[in-house]
Amino acid sequence: MPRRKISPRYVREICARTQRARLQSRYDEPDLMARQLGVLTATYVKYEHRGPIQHDLIEAFCEATGMSVYQLITGKHLPLDDEIEADSDTYGPDRPFLVK
Length: 100
Hints:
The protein is globular and about 40 Å long. It is mostly helical. 48% of the residues lie in helices and 0% in strands. The protein has a domain at 8-76: lambda repressor-like DNA-binding domains (434 Repressor (Amino-terminal Domain), Orthogonal Bundle). Helix 1 packs across helix 3 and helix 2 crosses helix 3 (41-49).
């Protein structure tokens, strides 16, 4: 099965969210974030302008910037608990993101 191509719109949006998260955190310059993630500055700059951040760096990036993984990927905030329609079979402390 051929790989699905990522839409150019999604690439632009996730790159913009990546850059915005860095700028809103304490990493004023791309080289500071690159160092935090353990990648070359040129590699990190690519994540802000040409292509999505590598999946194995997402968690560290989100921890460094304070952005949730969900928000980085989707551009949306997680809904509040009282906004999620759920019951004890599908939602609870051991399974917080399972919803009907």
